[in-house]
Amino acid sequence: MARIWVRWSRDSWEGDLVLKTQQIIGILLVNNGGFRFLLGAVYGHNDRKRRESLWEDIARLSQIADSQHLPLLIIGDFNALLYRHEKVGGRPVQDSILYDFQRCLLISGLRGLERAGHIWTWHNKASKGRVACQLDRALGNSEWFRYYPNAVAEGLAAETSDHSPIRVGLLERATWKARPFRYNNSWYLSADYEEVVARGLLDSREGTAQFRMVHKLKQVKKGIRDWVKRRPRSSLVDKEAELREVQEALQADILCGELAAREKNLSAEVNSLRLQEEISAAQRAKCSWLKDGDRCTKFFYDVIRTRQHRNSIPRLLDGEGKLVGDPVEIQREAVRFYRDLYHQEDYPTTFPPLIPKRLVTQHGNRRLLAPIRMEEIEDIVMKADPNRAPGPDGFSSGFFRRHWGALKLPVLEAVQEFFVSGKLLKELNHTFLTLVPKKEGATSLADFRPIACCNYLYKIITHLMCRRMEGIMQGLVSRNQAAFIKGRSIAEHSLLAHEMVREFNKPGGMKACVKLDLRKAYDTVNRDFLCQLMLAMGFDERWVARVRECICSPTFSVLIQGTPYGFFSSSRGLRQGDPLSPYLFTLVMEYFTCLMDLAVHSRRMVPLFRLVHPVVSHLIYADDLLVLLRPSMGGMRALSDIMEEFGRFSGLKLNREKSRVYFSSSCPQKEERALVLGVEKGELPVKYLGVPLTVNYARDQDCQSLVEFTKKRVEGWQAAGLSFGGRIELLRSVIAGIAMFWLQSIQIPVATITKVESMCADFLWRGGIHAISWTQLCRPREEGGVGLRSLRAMKEAARVKMAWQFVSGGSLWADWMASRYLRRSNFWTIRIDGNFSVTFKAILKCRPVLQTAICRSMRDGSSTDLWLDPWLGNRSLLEYLGPLHDREASRGLKCSLIIRDGAWRPELYTFTAQLGEEIRTISIDTSQTRDTWNWAGHASSGGLGRFSFKSCYDLVRTRHDRIEDVDFIWGKGIARKLQLCSYRLMLGRLMTRDRLIRFGVPIPDSRCLLCSDEDESMAHLFLECPLAWHIWSEQCRRYLGGAGSVRDIRGILSWIRDRRGMDAGWARQARLRLSATVWHVWRERNRRLFEDLITPPIGIMHNIDFDVSVLTP
């Protein structure tokens, strides 16, 4: 009996069988209108081993679709899970079971359709011991989502079956109004663009400086709109086709000068159009991490489609809870919701006496009110990301950067006018609200985050205000807050939370941790309270008036599908997206700290560690609140009263549904205590600041969110659009970045690191043969790698960084840890105790490495232990003299004993003459306020410097021999694809036929594809093959002179290196020509293998010459 049935209406569709196996049927469907797509119907085996052939079949069907640029939809019962959270009940899912399906999607470039309806598509029908899974799903490729970006896989009622049917709804895109003007960063490449902008900027009107500036932008916008309508549009596809025709004609008549000149002109046009397309796509995709890869335009468009699909709102719940899909009803509901959200509630008009812990000094206020300088504005504009979304006027920072010469004086006048008058032009502070869903498939507006798109001129003003405030915030805001304050770290905040929660595992005493969630935090801030609080903190009235103008004068429109709707003002809230908002929100949260400190001081509340100083009763990171206390009934009531008072005055109300309280196992009456606070009781571990907050050390299963994050970044069709160089950049910038945050926040198990590195390696090689090992790739370029970082070495570097932060001191975490564990002991000599936390043990184990990388900068010696601190180079005095000089009576002595009036006292250190000489070489810096540790890094770094994770990683990583001539491969001015091809050749890792055979790949013919005489190997393909050697010898004869006698690549590199000193320009050209030759020989080999196309030697040399001419500056 057949396992899979596929039916379609012959009146509308014609179907051809493409693939048929026991687990999948692939059919090419064509409708009456000519639309074609591939359908894959799946019924996977229950047995994991037998399912392996299904993954191969899916990859094969995906290859068929990609080769013909067809949309592909695969739907059915896969009998497999992708993630752990896709199963509830029963035994936990093992990662090894998930791996096969995940790897299949990675290779195939598929991703799941958005789910709706019944998401648990299978269950065991049991009343007890119920198990449910998401086994049935629909997958699509990039072409599918290009045609149907809003497609949804809806799970229907199972009725009598244990499986729910899946119905794919295509949800055609609704018709919306035209989108507003958006400046395109690629316009500057057009010939007459500059003239259009210059005409608009010359226009002048009478009025205030802000009015004149806004009017200039309006004139430029009008001119650009007219110019875009009338300019001739060149199609990149047409130009590329024309270029191919010319190049084919040139192959038949390679010496034709007329064709060569036409090719050169067409190539310049095609390159210009490609660059315009790439710049435009990069601007819309907003992938700031992709800075130095190949052109990844396809990837950019995939990102754009993903973002458009994720941010689209095809359906929405209205105020009555009814699901609506009509565009008019959606925009009406969105405008109503946000008009009500930003409307002031009945907040108190009088406030209690506000007594902040710290005040702004007179010097701080003078800095705030200092005159604005052109250099400040210019620095802000030049450092801005040109791809950030613009405000309602449509002009991004890219426009201001491009035309800064003409704009800087009008901008300076407009900005200075605001700082003098304190008034903003209403039009300047209009804001678009773009709605970003917090979860997949959001239909309630409460599940969207409103991000404010402000005009860039307004953002220049608020960036200036932030820079002025930056200098005073550290002294103004308590150390309980870590967000947005320079010098404070989210990782240290996370480490401190872990240290405190660790005590929950110990017997005795009641302990509680309360994770508080604020409802719509930014959007509900009481502005009057904020301004009163700032005055109480000592801010000058003029500065507070400027802040009030910025936050109280905006008007709003809501963007739906990129189109603005509505126009309304507001009376409460801060805008997420306004540069000023984070600092202002931090000041509001400082009031919570004041209330908590008063409760602790009056003993209404007892903190978890009252004998460890500094006393920490709570931690705040933006709107993430964590309270740690002894949960007596009185303490819980006190916390409830604090939240009530804080919410009443600040406007920030507690979201009791999302807040949780976690108790230690020894705490009695947990439910009653939770009821006093009014929140539910939870169970640890829980996610805090993005990482798991655990009682014990983090286990592999606790770190699955890191594994799943990595999977989502590297799997599916979006990342499949990246070139090899682009995939390296993704791993370097995004994956390594989030992994580094995790490594600095908790101690990640080796098993988790192994999984993440394995996924990264699979992604880089697209699930195929790993031509170069991950370990090799994670070396610096000069040592034979590509500059990726090993997560294992990063873990060790993160530990050393923690140790450095600990000995440097000054942070809340470092001071608390020192008080908790060191007490009167010395960090450098304390022994590791079994009661120490995992983090502190890791820090202590790093002492030998840290000691080699730091040195003591002496001021007066009062805080430097004479015997135990390593102030003598990298050694302590005890290490220098040996254990015979260890005297209890000498313990506690400071170096100040042998320093007087900023100089050493030689009469007091008469141990040895050599020691005296070494001490005299240590300089004393009387300009410092105290003795400090300085970071020196690795011995090869050449002296003192500021600490950086890069230098710390360099300190702990495994070193390898430097590879000679590697700088020729990675030199500037060489395209990434050329660099990587030469790199793989230098390592001997190109997948020629002899290497494929060694890897067990069945090859029907092992002969060289260029000559068919000898077996294909790298040595043969690039040097011994008659065709390849003819190309090399011609290149050497015409361009490289005496290199023609050299018979290997490294020999040619050495010959170029020897001549580099005589003619640097020639050497640069030679290096480029060498890389281009390697690339085109390899490209010709692949064209013959995969496309059955043959280019004659003279044509290959012409292509090399062309690439060199294009890449030569």
UniProtKB/TrEMBL annotation:
Domain of life according to the entry: Eukaryota
PROSITE patterns named in the record: RT_POL
Coiled-coil regions listed in the entry: none
InterPro entries: DNA/RNA_pol_sf, Endo/exonu/phosph_ase_sf, Endo/exonuclease/phosphatase, RT_dom, RVT-Znf
One Pfam family recorded for the sequence: zf-RVT
UniProt xrefs under SUPFAM superfamilies: DNA/RNA polymerases, DNase I-like
Domain Reverse transcriptase: 417-693
The protein's name: Reverse transcriptase domain-containing protein
Organism name: Iris pallida (Sweet iris)
